[in-house]
Design brief:
4 helices; mainly alpha; elongated
C-alpha cells in the first residue's frame, strides 16, 4: 500500500464518521422512553467524540497532503429505539475494525505519528461498541 491509497482509506473512514454524526443526531431525536434516558445521554457523549474523530481524520488526511473528503456515507435512520441502537452498534463495530487496520497500516507505512493520532479513535470506538452492547443487553 502506498500513501495515496492510505489517504483514500482515511477519507473513507472520515465519510463513515460523518455518517455517525448524522445517524446519532437522528437517533438521539427519535429514541424515547424512560428506559432510554441514560442511553440517550451516552449517545450524546458518543456524538461529541465522533466530531473529534472526524476532525482528527481530516487533520491526518491534510497532514499527508490529501484533501479531506466532504462525502457522507449513507446513514441508517430509525424510529424504533432498539433498531437505532442496533444500527449504531453495526456502524461502530465496522469502524472499530477499520481503525485497527488503519493503525497497523500507518505503522507499516512508517507513519508512527499518524498511528498515534488514530489510536484514541480506536480506544473510544471500542468503548462505544461496549456501551451499545450494554444498552442492547448483549
Amino acid at each position: 500500500m502506498d500513501k495515496e491509497a492510505f489517504i483514500e482509506l482515511l477519507n473513507d473512514d472520515l465519510a463513515t464518521e460523518y455518517q455517525s454524526l448524522v445517524q446519532y443526531v437522528q437517533h438521539i431525536a427519535t429514541i424515547t422512553g424512560a428506559e432510554y434516558i441514560s442511553t440517550v445521554d451516552e449517545l450524546r457523549a458518543h456524538l461529541a467524540q465522533e466530531v473529534s474523530h472526524a476532525t482528527t481524520l481530516a487533520e491526518q488526511v491534510d497532514f499527508l497532503d490529501g484533501v479531506p473528503t466532504v462525502d457522507v456515507a449513507r446513514a441508517q435512520p430509525a424510529t424504533e429505539a432498539r433498531a437505532a441502537l442496533r444500527a449504531d452498534l453495526a456502524l461502530e463495530t465496522r469502524q472499530l475494525e477499520r481503525y485497527r487496520e488503519r493503525v497497523q497500516q500507518a505503522n507499516d507505512l512508517g507513519l508512527a505519528d499518524v498511528a498515534e493520532a488514530l489510536r484514541p479513535l480506536l480506544t473510544q470506538t471500542q468503548e462505544h461498541v461496549r456501551d451499545l452492547q450494554a444498552a442492547l443487553g448483549e
